[in-house]
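User: I'm putting together a teaching handout on how multi-component assemblies are represented. Below are the sequence lines for each component of a complex, exactly as they appear in our records. Could you produce the 3D structure of the whole assembly as structure tokens, so the students can see both representations side by side? Please keep the chain order the same as the input.
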Amino acid sequence: MPTLTLPDGSTRTFDGPTTPAAVAADIGPGLAKAALGARVDGELVGLDHAIAKDAEIALITGPRGKNPCDADALWLIRHSGAHIMAEAVQKVFPDAMLVYGPPVEEGFYYDIAMPEGQTISSDDFEKIEAEMEAIVAADRPFTRCDMSADDGVSRLEQEGSKYKIDNARRAIEAGADSLSWYTTGTPGEHWDDLCRGPHVPSTGRVGGFKVMSVAASHWHGDADSDRLTRLYGTAFPDRKRLAAHLEQLEEAKKRDHRVIGRKLGLFRIDDMVGQGLILWTPKGAIIRQELQDFIGTELKRQNYDPVFTPHIGKLDLFRTSGHFPYYQDSQYPPLVDPDAMSRLVDEECSCADLSNRLREGDIDGYLLKPMNCPMHIRIFDGEPRSYRDLPVRLAEFGTVYRYEQSGELGGMLRVRGFTQDDAHIFCTEEQVQDEIAGCLELVQIIFKTLGIDSFDVRVGLRDPNATKYVGNPEVWDRAEDACRAAAETLGDAWHAEEGEAAFYGPKIDFIVRDAIGRSWQLGTVQVDYNLPERFDLSYIGADNAPHRPVMIHRAPFGSMERFVGFLIEHFAGAFPAWLAPEQVRVLPVSEKSSDYASNVYRTLRAAGQRVTLDEGNERLQARIRVAAEEKIPYLLIVGPRDAEAGTVSVRARGTERDLGAVPLQAFVDAISTETEDRCDGVVRGLFGDSDPA
RNA sequence: GCCACCGUAGCUCAGUGGUAGAGCACACCCUUGGUAAGGGUGAGGUCACGGGUUCAAGUCCCGUCGGUGGCUCCA
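Assistant: Of course. Below is the structure of the complete assembly, with chains in the same order as your input.
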């Protein structure tokens, strides 16, 4: 006699074992029709799930009206969508073997092993979708069939799919004592697939779906294992929500920094220069320079010492740091000294030999620096240090080069040459906590000033079961506590991840998402016990004995390239005035006002604003449209009326008309304050509207 | 690096093996217009690059380079 408790606290008692479907029917026919699945004692289950004892139950239904779809409902729909797509694929490609098809954040995928020589291309999507359409239209029930583990495995062995056998074995190893299949329709008659479920009650409940893309993947995520075809799809309860999702994706693409960057002329990647190497055009350079100036003032406040170091250094430096040859795969090959090169040519040295001898250290060469720390360490070590000198904070916008795999490169977000807003803090063990706090404060100032409020903070801790870490455990514990405590000061969301620490120390990373939903690490703060050891760093303590300093690596922006790439998307190109490459554009109504317009232009220039004068012979509307597309924060429209009164008509970005006319000097003062204070809304404040755009 | 797709004017894109196209941007002319596209004319191309098939290739095939998405990596 199970008694079930509903989310509102009410209870219902049943005579014997029951199912969510029966519970829904008991409540009402509407709910019975709308139900997709249920959570029973927190576990997501199908409507046919047997409930034999008292439990808490929440029925899951599709969305009503314009409400967003419940996450559980979407999960069920997409999981079922993956099955429907798999069935369709096997109809189109009968020899395709299925591997694994889970729901994911934006939809689902199915990994498929295609027979030798066959591929799925985007041209096939239409055929697959047509088959899916037929399966959905038939509205066949998802029917679950359970088998004992032994019977299930022998069935799979008969069918001969090594992938499904593997899935089953893994499930059994994880503790499953039976295996289940889901049929889209009648078992024995219709298509089925090994699956733990649950699913929506019938195929018709997957109301809107689309095959999105095809990509390669590896079995078990192992690059050395079988190559699979991964087909991505998405599904929604209805076509309307699918259409809304697709439209949202289109919108997101318009925010892509590669699209906006080209449109606004912020940066270029040039084939002739090389993959993953950013050319900062004048407009993009302004944004970067403003950011560097911004953080520069904060660094001064926090007593950092700026330094400059070269782009290349001897291989021995990076042998000592451990970067070479350990990370050789992600470095540009070393540069060999010209004299040494001549000798090698005389010796008829082969490439393989050269590579070996560089690795062994027989010949020296130079490396494009993959990190700045070894250089900063040599600066620290260049003079004797007393505990009274600590902490030493060396800061540099240091450009580093890493030979990232070509398939990984993307716009400004993943590149081969980038400039870190890097600094290394050399301090005592006791100072670590305060120094980390100082670093986080920097990150906070940056994020707050730029209005970045959606980010993840990940505290990377060591994996308690691994032995790869350097430094002693008590020191690690203290550093990890310091990282946690510092993250705590950020208040909201941070999470610790075991095993995410670097081998040399724990770290705090700041992670954001780009326009199309991918995660990227921006700022980072890392404690390092390894490099001081490798370089044998020391300072003289109060006890007149040498001690090992601790190093902290930190880059609040991460890299200028990635940060600006992200920022372009964050602002969708509409930068606040202090960052905008062009802050103000003066638009004379007609040539009659061009003298006054020049006067306005010169006044703003003299006040240090980045201003242009558009004297084109287009109509005012056309010039406004162009300026609006260039996302210029302020347009000053000046005509005879303004010339007469000595005013400017201010049109702020994003407004339909000008805010009104103000005396020229009032505007100059307001925008100067707005840009100097790196804030928003001062100009608008002139018009009694202090809301930022 | 791997798999799939893509590469035509500065940009966005049409183009069925048979003479290279459009819109925007650009230049010039007309227009002097008070808040998101006034009109006209013109210039602009080794169809990514290199081979091949064919009477004929932007179009078909192979290779290279580059881009996109994903996988794998990411000190």
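A couple of points students might notice: The first strand of chain A starts at residue 3 and ends at 5. The two ends of chain A are 61 Å apart (CA to CA).
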